Structure formats: C-alpha cells, structure tokens
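Same chain as my last thread, 288 residues:
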Amino acid sequence: MSQYIHGHDAAQKTHAARTAEDSAAFLLPHLDKHTILADIGCGPGSITLDLARHIESLGGLAEQVTGVDTASEAVSCANTAAARAHLPVTFVQASGTSLPFDDNSIDVAFLAQVLHHVPDPTAVLKECARVVKPGGIIASREVDYGAMLWYPPHPGLTRWRAIFSSVAALNGTQPNAGRHLPLWFRRASLTDTTVTSSNWVYSNKADCVQLATSWASRTQEEAYVLQAAHALGDVQEGTPGKPVAGDITHAAIKQIAEGWHEWANAPGALFMMPHIEVIARIPSDLDN
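reply #2:
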C-alpha cells in the first residue's frame, strides 16, 4: 500500500502519542453509538483506541472499531497497546487497496496521514468507498509539507524539506498531500464533500525539542540516508558491491540533524504543520 519513506522506528514513538482529539476532531461529531469504524493506516493504534473509547462513551462498543495497517510491526505494536488498555479492538495487516471488509459493511473509513505515503491515493479512496455503507462517510486528514512554516529560518530545515520532497517524488508519493486531497476525492467519484483545515503548532520548548528529536532521528535512519543519496545523485559502491551514501549525503544529513536541534533551542522557536480534512458522504437510496 505505502512506501514509508523514513522508516517506522523513530516515527512510531511520535505516532503513538497521537490522539483522536489532535488528529480526528473533525470526525468526532459524526460518530454515534452505532458507528462501525475502520481506521485505515492506523500505525501503532493510539488514535484507533481513542476512537474506540469515544464510541464507548456514546454508548457503543470498542469492538465496533478495527485498525488496519500494511506494516506488521505497526499491527503488533497496536495489538500490544490494545491489550494494555483492555480494549477489544481488532488490528489487522492489510493493504489500503485490498481492505478486509465486505462491500457496504462499515459506517466510517478514517485515514489520518495515510495518503501522502501511497502512490495511488485515488485507488485507496475507491476501496474505502467499496466497504462503506450508503449514507456512511470517508474521512481523511493530510499534512502539507510545502505549506509548513517555521521560525527562526534555518538552512538545515530548508534542506530537510527539499530532500524529503525529492525522496518522496522518487518514491512516487506526494508530500504536499493536503492541497491535493479534495481533488483525490473527486477523482474517486466522491463529490459530496466537506473540506476543513486545522494545524499542529509547536511553540513551547518541550514540544519543539520532541519534534526536533523525532525528525533528526528519522533522517538518520539507514534506509532514509540511502534514499537521500539517490535524490542527491550521491550513491557510491560499497563493499561488497552494496550501494552506500556518499560524503555529500552524509554532510547534508548532518546539517539537517544539527539544524533541527539548533532550531528547537532558538529563542521564539515555532513550527506549524497545516492539515486539510475532507469528509465525503456515500450516496444512499434516500438521495434519489
């Protein structure tokens, strides 16, 4: 389903702290005690479990929620979190283009920060439309890397975004997914849509340091460094014949990692991540 550019190790720690409130607030008013929900691309499951708690608070059951992810390590992490939380939420490994649900069998398909990882977002949305009941909804929230802003400016962060965007392009994915999201829904023949936006803002020292630590770690993961080398045209032949990143890449990664930490410790540090949110309603017989 996806090409997770910067690996899962460092990212999972950040993703495991996400909640329904910070990642799915636009969806919560559409849920009730009867909602059968699938969290597509659920990662370590923190949002999924929060959504289950919310449905429970409305009088429903946690088992009405299922998490789906293409990565076995994410599913394993999510199952562990569910057991610790004593929530009977099911997590399964499957592709977003081949969901493990019957036609017209769920009320809500939810995707948070998923479509910028996949080469064919429209195909994923069409598959969601297959499994959602008439009258149900598909809800997606996507970040837009090109619209991110930070202060103070730093060449390390500028280089981080440029290289990340190049790596994404080489993988056939779209880091500026937020601005493309309404069009992707339209291409999937989902035209009854509501579009909103919201931001993640990092401004206090602890949050800035946490963000910087996460991204510095992600950019230094071995798999990402090699992808960066391909983006920079700096792949060298290692031993025995194994491709490795050259000095130009390592210098760039060093500048990026140091840049994140220097930014986080600067007076008045600020980082904003803008998100676009789309809710699409599946037509029902009552609409005719």
